[in-house]
Design brief:
The structure is a homodimer. By secondary structure, chain A is of the alpha/beta class. Helices cover about 30% and strands about 25% of the residues of chain A. In chain A, strand 25 and strand 26 form a beta hairpin. The longest helix of chain A has 28 residues. The relative contact order of chain A is 0.15.
């Protein structure tokens, strides 16, 4: 009997956790494990806002996939997936066709612009390492150009961040620390720079404890960040964004940089599979399989699970993606062995949003934390993700251990 | 009797050398020395190509003017000179009007584009720290964007350097070292990058020993740099440059970055003074005064002196500018004391062109040097300039002492 092939698409938190769990649990002779990823590196998507702001090097947020997989057990293919055909059970990539017995779709998120005119074209999105790198370079180029030009266009120094959710707030925290550095480096007076957060919803960080949100806004404002809340972006142009401030009231904000951090969706390839989805996210069964497809698992940002306690989806976090990877691997092994699968139950350890390198807010163990203590915990969470996937070696090599400064 | 005012315009090699020599030689009660400069820092204009390539930080190529002037003897005014009126003996700057008894014009060079269409608008010029910084950021942004974009525009990775003179060749040397770093940093395959030197004249580095020139070209070619010699740039556009390859033969080279390093001229303010000049350079008297103006000295890149041995102007170098500053200061003191002025005679110690951090060509003590030895000597020359102006402290703080790597 031919041994089964497990095909994993994407080496983000979900995919890589699945592969690591599989290679730990199963023998090389029992299955063929194939991992396909666009790049030969994994990146910490929860750290991308730091690379985008320029407070961390793009190199520091990624590591070689080969360094965490067991090359005797896992075949790694560097290729871009172009089609997923679950009827024929074949995946097409830039490296050719791949058949499978069990498929794990862990292709992560894409930015969602909700059809707002011009955002696709004129706003940056912190979508991956390359996009983050471009944002950093773009901002630096704007500062360098302002400094040089005879007739100064101050709007070059305006950065608009669309969205006051998790990513938006964390990115603002980094910018709050980065802007003074940029001013020094490029001889720009601090008062010329504007960083503005524009949010459609009437609140910052929905779902977070109001007291923590208040702390976050106060801290960010102290760093010079402006907030325009309850004012949707209605259009982006090459010169900036138009925001809606009232029934018939609009304001155009000129800005050299617009970063859209207000929405994510699943990978668009999902929409071509025929599996029922909402913005490319699939409401998976309790054992993480796509409804009606017993050999297709979906984990990470492409999976949608309802938190019945609050009747809202769980947020697309690294924490949940990694836990799903674990359960997904176990369930595939169960299926191969003819055992029943188990339900995925998230183990929510809390949530911490950083506000720059030295500050954060969060809840853990049922308690609220702010400031240096929360920042310390955030870094522990970041290091833990490295440890879970790559062990102590990776955590030491790529971890955030500058904790005492 | 009112003590005389010496007004020095510009804190480049020439101006700063003049001021440093004056403050060393003359008492605080004897004269008023006023130094006007656009920035509160001096920059090593001979190092700008390194900042532009990104092989040296812009911060490393500059230092505070205050750190080398004696604040008891010299009044420093951070302002931009806007007019020089030698008839009324008044200089206007963004800080107001300044009268003088002796004027030293040491305003340095500007880029010269010889009226070639589009160069002013679409080519960068390594004119000062801010311009160098913008070039570095522009190149990095091009690499970051290429790496991210779906449909790759390879011309983003083409860098055209106009001019195979001193600046062009030194800049190419830095790019030769920088490009592999950029490729690594931005995940760009090296073979996608083109660096092309375009020169109108039929030769590289005119005036240099042919054997050394041959060495330089060989070394730069080994780093992947292409040469198009004897092919004038006839037009620059937002997409690249058009070069003339024969009588009726033209070639358009698409390029994301065009850096024009083919010509310098004196500061345009000279042209408004009524002093006879060629491209804002004044053929000064032997004691460095402007012809017919006994109280106006001109030193550095705005001064033109003929090397009678070869019947060509001396090149605009830091070495000559600093020597002129010395003589200029002495001559002003001589005039104040009623003594005769002395002739300026350049003491040419040789000429070394770097080819990146680790290689160079040059002549000194009547001998030719290449490779690491020449590179070592180049760094000694660089350190010497710091020492001459700011003493051992400055040389140690800002010098190039990584000589043994």
């Amino acid at each position: 009997m031919k041994r089964p092939t497990i095909l994993v698409l994407g080496a983000g938190y979900g995919g890589l956790s699945t592969v690591v769990k599989l290679q730990k649990t199963i023998g090389a002779d029992d299955v063929d494990i194939v991992l396909i990823n666009k790049n030969d590196y994994h990146y910490e998507s929860t750290w991308l806002h730091e690379a985008a702001a320029g407070t961390m090097s793009p190199e520091s947020v990624r590591y070689d996939i080969k360094s965490v997989i067991d090359n005797n057990k896992v075949k790694f293919v560097k290729a871009e997936v172009t089609e997923i055909n679950i009827q024929e059970k074949v995946v097409t990539s830039s490296a050719g066709a791949h058949t499978y017995d069990y498929l794990v779709i862990s292709l992560g998120f894409e930015g969602e612009t909700f059809g707002i005119t011009g955002l696709d074209k004129y706003a940056f999105s912190i979508a991956n390492v390359k996009a983050a790198r471009q944002i950093r370079e773009h901002i630096e180029y704007q500062f360098a150009t302002w400094s040089l030009e005879e007739e100064k266009d101050d709007s070059r120094l305006t950065i608009i961040v669309g969205g006051a959710g998790f990513t938006g707030i964390e990115f603002l925290g980094e910018l709050g620390n980065r802007v003074p550095e940029l001013c020094k480096e490029f001889d720009v007076p601090a008062e010329k720079v504007r960083v503005i957060c524009v949010e459609a919803a009437p609140m910052v960080l929905p779902g977070f404890d109001p007291e923590l949100v208040e702390y976050a806004v106060k801290q960010l404002k102290a760093k010079g960040i402006e907030f325009s809340i309850g004012t949707p972006v209605v259009e982006a142009t090459p010169e900036g964004v138009n925001i809606k401030k009232g029934e018939d009231e609009f304001e155009f904000i000129k800005a050299g940089t617009v970063v859209w951090a207000a929405g994510v969706r699943g990978n668009r390839l999902i929409e071509q599979t025929g599996i029922e989805n909402m913005r490319a996210r699939v409401k998976v069964d309790k054992d993480l399989r796509a409804p009606g497809h017993s050999d297709v698992f979906i984990v990470g940002d492409c999976a949608l699970m309802i938190n019945e306690a609050v009747n809202r989806p769980y947020p697309p976090t690294a924490q949940i993606a990694m836990q799903q990877g674990d359960v997904c691997a176990n369930n595939i092994i169960a299926l191969i062995k003819g055992n029943p699968t188990t339900e995925f139950v998230p183990d929510l350890k809390g949530s911490i949003a950083s506000l720059g390198d030295d500050d954060a807010i969060g809840t853990a163990f049922g308690k609220k934390f702010t400031g240096k203590k929360a920042s310390f915990m955030k870094k522990m969470v970041d290091n833990r993700a490295l440890y879970m996937i790559g062990g102590a070696g990776l955590a030491i090599k790529k971890g955030k251990f500058n904790l005492l400064k």
